[in-house]
Design brief:
With 95 residues, this protein is an all-alpha fold. The chain has 4 helices and no strands.
Length: 95
């Protein structure tokens, strides 16, 4: 799976699972997911996002410390998925 395809799948999962009122095109790869300057997700959304990552991508977010680092934006989620899957050597950053 290409880097762009993985980012698109992450965004699609977010819009569907979190029932966001925005399209995937409106979610930037580096847009913060939480807080007023970002999409504005809350703690319930974080739980739903963690569940979605496990169901769709087969990676778990074991605790809140990991969640704080991983669930920042689409790129941090992508990096985590690649790291957990062991695919990081196959996809070069920025492609």
């Amino acid at each position: 799976m290409s880097d762009a395809d993985l980012r698109t799948r992450i965004k699609e999962m977010m819009v569907k699972n979190l029932m966001l009122q925005i399209s995937t095109d409106e979610i930037g790869n580096e847009t913060p997911l939480f807080g007023p300057e970002g999409i504005g997700l809350d703690s319930i959304d974080a739980l739903e996002l963690a569940v979605g990552l496990e169901k769709v991508f087969g990676v778990s977010v074991p605790n809140s410390e990991v969640a704080t680092k991983v669930l920042r934006n689409v790129d941090t989620i992508r990096d985590y998925i690649l790291e957990k899957r062991g695919d990081s050597a196959q996809v070069q950053p920025g492609q």
